[in-house]
Design brief:
The protein is mainly β and 206 residues long. The protein has three helices and 14 strands. Strands 2-1-11-5-6-8-3 form a seven-stranded mixed sheet, covered by helices on one side. A four-stranded antiparallel sheet has the order 10-9-13-14, with no helix packed on it. The two termini are 26 Å apart.
């Protein structure tokens, strides 16, 4: 299983991190190892190497069949599930790596850094993939709201782009970027992710 992640895919989030991605540029793609996968309802343990681990709530799509060089118009045929996930980021380490011009993959790819909710069927109506709302609640308060229509690169384009470079396999997970509102987590917090109004993600910070 590959965990494929897209960065800087929502304009408002890019602004809050002081980044820009101009229209027409290619997606920013990075990968997490399978050891980053955190199954729903299992706790996330704060690592000892970071003082500022932040949540990034994202739509996650599951690849349902083998594919290579997939055209965008056929991409939905290769997706068989959608849910809400959290891309945990060691933000202090990431900032330090960026200052030094170093790769920040390890700040994203540590153990347990990809929390994934229960998969739900992908909507099949025309335009449905660009009309999905999701959110994250922490301790009962909504901290992030997202809408797939706000993506700079929609999921069909992401499938097309990634599959140019690497074969997509059944069970691969595609994190599609986070909207604005990211923030730090602390021990004891209760995180709940919603796809539309259905809770699909539920776990605690330890």
């Amino acid at each position: 299983m590959k965990i494929i992640c897209v960065g800087w895919n929502y304009a408002e989030h890019n602004k809050e991190l002081g980044c820009t991605l101009k229209e027409g540029e290619e997606p920013v793609v990075f990968f997490k190892p399978d050891s980053a996968f955190l199954r729903n309802r299992r706790p996330f343990f704060l690592p000892d190497f970071s003082e500022q681990v932040e949540y990034e709530t994202e739509l996650v799509f599951r690849i349902g069949r083998l594919g290579k060089s997939i055209g965008a118009r056929f991409a939905d045929r290769y997706i068989d599930g959608v849910t809400v996930g959290i891309d945990f980021t060691a933000r202090d380490m990431q900032a330090d790596c960026r200052r030094k011009g170093l790769s920040w993959g390890i700040c994203k790819g540590f153990d347990g850094s990809a929390a994934v909710g229960d998969m739900k069927p992908v909507p099949v109506s025309e335009g449905a993939l660009e009309n999905i709302r999701f959110r994250l609640d922490i301790d009962g308060k909504t901290v992030q709201n997202g809408f797939s229509g706000d993506m700079i690169f929609p999921v069909r384009r992401l499938v097309e782009y990634v599959s140019r470079f690497c074969t997509l396999k059944t069970g691969d997970l595609l994190f599609t970027g986070t909207p604005k509102g990211v923030g730090p987590v602390r021990i004891g917090q209760h995180l709940e992710g919603y796809l539309e109004d259905e809770k699909v993600l539920d776990f605690h910070i330890r």
